[in-house]
Amino acid sequence: MGTLRCEFFRGTLMKTQMLSSTITCSLRKKPRKLGWRSKRLSTEAIQAIQSLKLAKSRSCPIRLQQVFDTKFSRLLKADLLDTLQVLQSQNELDLAIKVFELVQKEEWYEPELSLYHNMIEMLGKNKMIEMAEEFFYKLEKEGLKPDTRAFTEMIGAYLQVVMIDKAMQTYARMKESGCSPDKLTFTILIRNLEDAGEEELASSVKEECGEYMEYPQQFIEEVEQKKGVSNCCVILSCSICANNPMSDLNFFLQFLSSFSA
Fold this sequence. Notes:
14 helices, elongated
């Protein structure tokens, strides 16, 4: 019975993590197909990625540079962009930065906000705040105007390291620039401010939802409800210790059904 409870907990934990992890990501606009096309990753792009990872695993800077000089010099535009997107999705931070810099050196390169969105998001998740700021400034230097997504990713980066003042300053700058906060912006702000114990700030952000959203109260309720999913593990971990695992299963199924209703 102990094994059953353990296996059940692992399963429910995985489901809970999967649900909670999509709360903010699902609000981001879905990325375009790999390389801004509908085809699968090319053989050349796959080989380039594999060669990069192999050189990195061997801690060989010379070999890494050789891969860039040989395999990447032959990649088409779409393949190079594919490679960047794959490295970002796999959280290969160092490699993604190098490929991004390589993309910028290409003759066909034109500044595009979506490239910066993904880089700032990735840097924020890795708590590389100073570098995230550099990329934010770079997009402005390249003549791009930060949009809602760019500001939101920067806000999220600051909140990753609980830099509340910086996050709120960026939020204020977003509104001053004429960009309207969206669901992703409010979700990131509300959840992180509450987690940091900044109840007053969280309440003020919730009040502002009415200025930008059609059904603010419904949205806030959804944010709070989804936040409960991430807290489910704590509840279940206590319940799993009980002697009746089937009651735990019923509890969890009822819990999940409340979110799919």
